[in-house]
Every structure is written in structure tokens, then in C-alpha cells.
Amino acid sequence: MRILAKSDIGKVREMNQDSYYISDLENDELKLYILADGMGGYKGGEIASSLAVANVKNYITNHFKKTRKDRENILKLLKNAIEYANKVIYEKAQEDEELHDMGTTLDICLIYNNRIFIGHVGDSRVYRIRKNIMRKLTTDHSYVEKLVKEGTITKEEAYNHPKKNMLMKALGCNSFVEPDIICKGFLKDDILLMCSDGLTNMLRENEIYNLLLNNPDNPEEALINNANDLGGYDNITAIIIDNIEINEEETKES
After folding, report:
1. Nearest to 135, CA basis, from 143, 144, 126
2. With bands split at pLDDT 50, 70 and 90, how would you rate the model's confidence at 157?
3. Domain presence at residue 107
4. Which of 26, 147, 158, 228 has the CA that lies 20 to 30 A from 166?
5. Do the domain assignments include residue 18?
């Protein structure tokens, strides 16, 4: 397995309010990957996303060993972790008037026994590439996604909709949140992409797919550089989890 990750402030924002965590493949028993895109005033988004990542990581790390390793219980662990992080962020926002409007998206990928266990809130995304087909595994909790589902607008119209950044659900905005929890297979040569909307608002899915496959050495750099070349209007974060076999000689050379 190969993990690549990068976060960039973009070309317009004054600070990077995206946060992420990736497990150390050599030293961590748990294969855990987390991405959060914060929002809510000066520093609010940065605090919300940092709290989300730290609390989810700690909750899952502390509870995974004593969790039964079946599909139902691992998904329940992710759900509990998200609800716990939501509570922490919501209570922090109530304590400080300057943080009242803070919130964050959240995506979790926990890889165990050839499966991906995904927890999702907001409009950051998880994609899987398998056999040259890229599929979005998460559903955006956004106003435009709701309009697309209702048939009010097309997917093409959603790209340029004036309310494309309006979220229907985010972490920390209410005392309770109902996350999406999903389990999918993760096979040899599958590629996962976790990304914030700073990437997907700049690049279409076919462009993301082509950049991933045509830049095998540094695909995360290619994604972020292209998003910045097109304007870089938001912070951009990409985590790539490539389920390839790496032998010892390749590891030593790299």
C-alpha cells in the first residue's frame, strides 16, 4: 500500500482551514485516514476541522482493539466517533461567541480486512478507482445535491450553481448529527481519493481521474497544482491510498 497526502492553502484564502490525519504504515497497527474542511469565520473553521480530526482519531484508536471486528460493529465505532467529535465541536462553539458559526465536513476511511469503512458528513468526498473506473462513494450533504436528486437541476448545472457551497449537514453546527456510514470492498490495485471541495470545485471528475492516472509518481501534487492553476479559490487537500504491493527493494530505493 502507498499513501500520498498534501494540503495547500490555495490562491485566495488567508489560512488553511483543512485538516487531515494519515496512519503511519510502518508503525501504526490501524490503517486510518481522516479529512476535514472547516468553516465559520476567522480561525473558526481551522479550530473545527482540527478538533474533528483529533477527536475522531483518538476515539477510534482508543476503542478499536475492544471492538468486535465485524461490519456492523466497525461501522458503529465510526458513527460513535463522529457523534463524539460533533459534541466536542458543538460545545466548544457554544462557549465562545466568536466560534458560534464554526463547523466542518468530515470523511473517515478505516481500512480493515480488504474493506473500507467510511464515515461521512458534508461535501468533502471519497472516490474509488477500480479497473479504470472512478466512482464517488460518498454523497454530498449539500443544497445542490438535493436539487440534483429531486431533478430540479442537472449535474452540469450544479457545477456553477450560486449556492453550490451551501451545506445541509456539517459537524458541530447542531448538538446531534447523523453521519453516513458505508462499507465497501478494497481490493488489490484499487485507489482511494479523499479530497476537500477545494479540489472538486476546480476540477471535473474526468480531469481528476486523468491526473491521478497520468501522474503516477506525484498524483497529489498534480491535483493541487492544477486546482491552483484554475484559480485555487479554496484550500485544497488530497489523500491518495493506493492498494499496490510494494516490495522491500522498492521501499529502500524510495
Report:
1. 126
2. confident
3. yes
4. 228
5. yes
